[in-house]
Amino acid sequence: MRHRRHHVLRRSCIALAVCQALACSVAMANPSGGKVVRGQATIDQLDNILTITTGTQRSVIDWQTFSIAPDEITRFMQPSSDSSVLNRVVTNEPSLLLGRLESNGQVFLINPFGILVGEGAAIDVAAFVGSTLNLGIDDYLEGRFHFAGDNAAAPVINQGHIVTPQGGSIYLVAPEVENSGLLSAPDGQVLLAAGRELRLVDTGTPGVSIVITGAPGDVTNLGRVFVDAGTVGMAGALLRNSGTVSASSVVHDGGRIFLRASDAVELSGGELQARSAVSTGGAIDVTAPFVELQEATVDTSGASGGGRIRLGGPRRGGRDGDDTLATADTLFVSSGRCRSGRPRRRDHPLVRCGVRAVPHRQRPRCGRRGRRIRRVVFGQPAGLGRPGRRRAGRDSVVRPEGPLYRH
């Protein structure tokens, strides 16, 4: 645990240093030096407003710099909401977005030297893709989302507001991704993916389509993510959430949230929500070799029935019809709560999700139904099983009857 804390602190310091470096190095101005390399587009500057008007479904523009000062507006006028423009920064200047970025279509921004959406900035587009990994022109024109970079690729950091209309999407892709602002895509998709190379095979089902083929990186969410019955996905080596991630809805079933890490998932004081005020709760899946929960809330409650929560792997070790989820080795719980019934029901302690106490020295073993979580460690006394069953002491080990699963 001490090693993980040191790792988290080191990453936070790196992110802070990157923010300061970006803020000091970028000359404050609207994007400059634009050159249209594919499609049709015109670039016009009037006072503090830069307007780019495209005449084709897909366009590609190379820029010398792509930054926006606090009092500036960069606006893309496109044929439709399905149209898109790929913006590539070809110099070593990072992108510091502190003003407004607007478009009726989809905007891609690729800058290997870093992207920072600053506090107070606003991005309002049909869809936004921000990445420090390269996206080839041919891949872009053919609709292939293949991102690749080298060890020098910088992080993507959002401290502002990125919003889309109904059904939009927000993808932040880099070796390191951090959100401390607002990401909102009602009934759409928000994807935070960290790695040196990755593919989005089918963006309609990001829970299955994220393929990280290079070295994975870290994703941190300290802010708010809202999709209103949509899908939120996070993928990387280490995923940390202490903010609010919500796929809840007041008019539909709850949406879906998935967190998939090759190293660990740390949920500290935040919330994962896929509730429904009128129908059935949604689904939340958290998979990694090590899963830690500290004062976190996981909620898939619904007016007509609870949704699904899977922590550490699929039900019965992968024999419930979904073998795409890996099974965790360890689930560490210091405190936390989950709701998977009707909202008026009492909250269920998270540790009641399909586990029962066993003697401290007894090691859980794999059963006939598949590989199970090896250990569930409790950092403080917590109630297990149904009311009246015995309590587990500090650092007790329990055998998952699932593993941890509530449906």
Features:
43% strand, 3 helices, 407 residues, disordered N terminus, 31-stranded mixed sheet, four-stranded antiparallel sheet, mainly beta, globular
SSE arrangement:
Layout: H1 2-25, E1 35-38, E2 41-46, E3 49-54, E4 58-63, E5 73-77, E6 84-89, E7 95-97, E8 100-103, E9 106-110, E10 115-117, E11 122-124, E12 127-131, E13 134-135, H2 137-141, E14 145-148, E15 156-158, E16 161-163, E17 169-174, E18 176-179, E19 182-184, E20 189-194, E21 197-200, H3 206-209, E22 210-212, E23 218-221, E24 224-226, E25 231-241, E26 244-246, E27 256-268, E28 271-273, E29 283-287, E30 290-299, E31 308-311, E32 330-339, E33 348-349, E34 355-357, E35 375-378, E36 398-400, E37 405-406
Structural class by secondary-structure content: mainly beta
Instruction: Give the beta-strand count.
Output: 37
Q: Considering DSSP H and I runs of 4 or more, what fraction of the residues is helical?
A: under 10%
Inertia-based shape: globular
Approximate strand percentage: 35-45%
Total DSSP helices: 3
Gyration radius, in Å: 22 Å
Give the overall average pLDDT.
Answer: 78
Residue runs with pLDDT of under 50 for 5 or more positions: 1-16, 316-323, 344-374, 378-407
User: How would a textbook summarize the main sheet?
Assistant: 31 strands, mixed
- The N- to C-terminal Cα distance equals 30 Å
